[in-house]
DNA sequence: GGCGAGTTTGTAGGATCGTAACAACAGAAT
DNA sequence: ATTCTGTTGTTACGATCCTACAAACTCGCC
C-alpha cells in the first residue's frame, strides 16, 4: 500500500468511514465495479467482510448494489460521492449548531470579561485577530514584523474597517509589511521606535480601541501563541504599558 | 436532558466529536465560560474528565483555555466553530477524493456496462435520475404519477436539457405533474394510455435516448427502490418492452 | 463430493465511558 | 505554627462498545 493510499484512507476515516469502508470504496473505484471476491483480491479486506461493509457503504449512498449472483458492486461517481458526504456534513452541522445557538448564554457581554485568554496555533490566532479587528469601533493598531502573519483575510478586514472610517495604523519594522498594508486606502503606517534592535522574539500586536488587545509570540519552532483580552480593565492596563514602553526618548524628542 | 439536546449531541458525534466533547462544548456555550467544576455541574461529564476533553476541544479549535488557577474555558463563537469544522471537513474531503480520482478506472465506459443496478432510498434515486437526464444526448422521457417525485432539481435539469435542444417528453396521469412540467419551455406532456386503471403501484420511469433507463417503484411504506441500466443491451430490451406494452389498442387506433 | 458465494458467529484490540484514588494547594479553624 | 477541610488538577483502572480479523457454516451448482 502506498503512502498516498494510507493518507486517503486516514482522510476517509476522519470523514466518518471505517478503514474497511474506505478500502472497499477506493478498490471499487479502481475496478470500476466488481464482486466481493474482486474487492477482496485487491485489498486486505477479508472477502466475508466485503458484504457487510458494502452494505453500509450503500446506506451512506457511496455505492450501488447489483442484485444478482454473485452480487456486484458499483461505486457512485466521485462528484456524487462528494456531494453526498457534503450534504450529510452540512445537515449534521446545522442540527448540531442550531441547538447550541438556542441555548447559548446571551447576557455575558464582552465588557464584563476581565480575563486574559490564550490561543494556540497560527490559524486560530488569525481568526481571533480578525475578530478583534471587526469588533473595533474607532481605532485599530496592528503591528508585526513578519509578513507571513499578514493573511489576506486580515488585509481585507483592515481595508474594510479603514473604509468604514476607523483610524487604522500599521506599525512594522518590516518594509514589506508597511508597503503592502500602507497601499490600502485609509491605512497609515509607522516604524516602531527601535529601542531594542537585538530583540529576537517576534509576533504581533493588535489594539482595537482602548480596551481590546491581542499579543502573540512566535516560538523558535514556528508555532504561535497569543494572549488576548477584550473589554477588560486588564486590556487597558496592557495597552497603556505598551504605549508607555514604546514612548522612547527618540520618539518623545521627535514628537516635540 | 432534552430530546433536542440528545439530537444535537448525536449530530456532533457524527461530525467526529465524542459525546463528552459535544457535552462540554454545549455546556460552555450555555455558561459563556467556566471552569471544570462549572462544566461538570451542568453536565454528566465527570469533572476529572473535563480537563482532558477540553484539551482535545482546544486542539480542534473549538474552545480557548485561560491559563490560571482554576483553569477557565471559553468556547469560540458559533460561527467560528462552524467555519473551523467546515474547513476541516473540506480539507479531508479533498485529500480523500484526490487519491480516489487518481486511481479510478478510466476505461470502463458506460456503454460496455451490461448490468442492471439497484438503488434504494428516495434521495439516491433522485440523484440517479438527474444523472441519467444529464447524460442523455437526444431524447428524454420522464414519467411519474406522483408530484412529490418531481424535485426542483429534476425540474431544473429537464428545463436545461430541453433548452439544449433535446426532445423532452413528460408522461403522467397526474394533472399537477403535467401542468408543472409542461410549463417548462420545450417540454411536451402526454397522458399514458390508461389500460390499467386499477394499478396500485406507483413510481417513475426515466428513459434517456434509446439505451438508458430507470424504473422505480414506491413501496406501501413510502420507500422507493429503483433499477437502472445505462448503455446496455438490457436497457434497450426493457425500453422496447415498455414501449410495446404502452402501445395499447386505443393508442394504436388513435395513431392510425 | 468439491467448489465458490454468501451468511453467521466468535474473538482480540482499541477507544470511550465512568469511577476512583491521589498529590498539591489555599483558606479556615485550632 | 499547625491542623483541618475543601478544591483543583492528575493519573489510574475496570466496563463497555465498536472495529478488525478469523473461522465456521449453509446453500447452490458442477
UniProtKB/TrEMBL annotation, chains A, B:
It holds the Pfam family TrmB. Coiled coil: none annotated. Residues 14-78 form the Transcription regulator TrmB N-terminal domain. InterPro entries: TrmB-like, Tscrpt_reg_TrmB_N, WH-like_DNA-bd_sf, WH_DNA-bd_sf. This is TrmB family transcriptional regulator.
Amino acid at each position: 500500500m502506498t503512502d498516498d493510499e494510507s493518507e486517503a484512507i486516514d482522510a476517509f476515516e476522519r470523514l466518518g468511514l471505517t478503514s474497511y469502508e474506505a478500502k472497499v470504496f477506493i478498490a471499487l473505484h479502481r475496478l470500476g465495479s466488481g464482486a466481493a471476491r474482486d474487492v477482496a483480491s485487491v485489498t486486505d479486506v477479508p472477502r466475508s467482510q466485503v458484504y457487510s461493509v458494502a452494505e453500509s457503504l450503500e446506506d451512506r449512498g457511496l455505492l450501488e448494489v447489483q442484485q444478482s449472483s454473485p452480487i456486484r458492486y458499483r461505486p457512485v461517481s466521485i462528484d456524487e460521492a462528494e456531494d453526498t458526504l457534503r450534504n450529510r456534513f452540512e445537515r449534521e452541522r446545522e442540527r448540531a449548531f442550531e441547538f447550541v445557538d438556542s441555548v447559548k448564554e446571551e447576557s455575558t457581554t464582552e465588557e464584563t470579561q476581565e480575563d486574559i485568554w490564550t490561543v494556540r496555533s497560527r490559524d486560530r490566532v488569525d481568526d481571533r485577530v480578525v475578530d478583534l479587528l471587526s469588533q473595533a469601533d474607532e481605532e485599530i493598531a496592528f503591528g508585526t514584523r513578519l509578513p507571513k502573519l499578514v493573511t489576506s483575510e486580515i488585509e481585507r478586514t483592515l481595508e474594510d474597517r479603514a473604509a468604514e472610517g476607523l483610524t487604522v495604523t500599521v506599525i512594522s519594522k518590516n518594509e514589506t509589511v508597511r508597503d503592502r498594508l500602507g497601499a490600502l486606502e485609509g491605512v497609515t503606517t509607522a516604524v516602531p521606535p527601535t529601542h531594542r534592535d537585538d530583540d529576537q522574539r517576534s509576533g504581533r500586536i493588535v489594539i482595537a480601541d482602548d480596551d481590546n488587545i491581542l499579543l502573540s509570540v512566535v516560538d523558535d519552532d514556528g508555532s504561535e501563541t497569543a494572549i488576548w483580552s477584550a473589554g477588560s480593565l486588564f486590556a487597558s492596563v496592557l495597552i497603556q504599558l505598551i504605549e508607555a514602553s514604546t514612548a522612547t526618548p527618540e520618539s518623545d524628542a521627535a514628537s516635540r
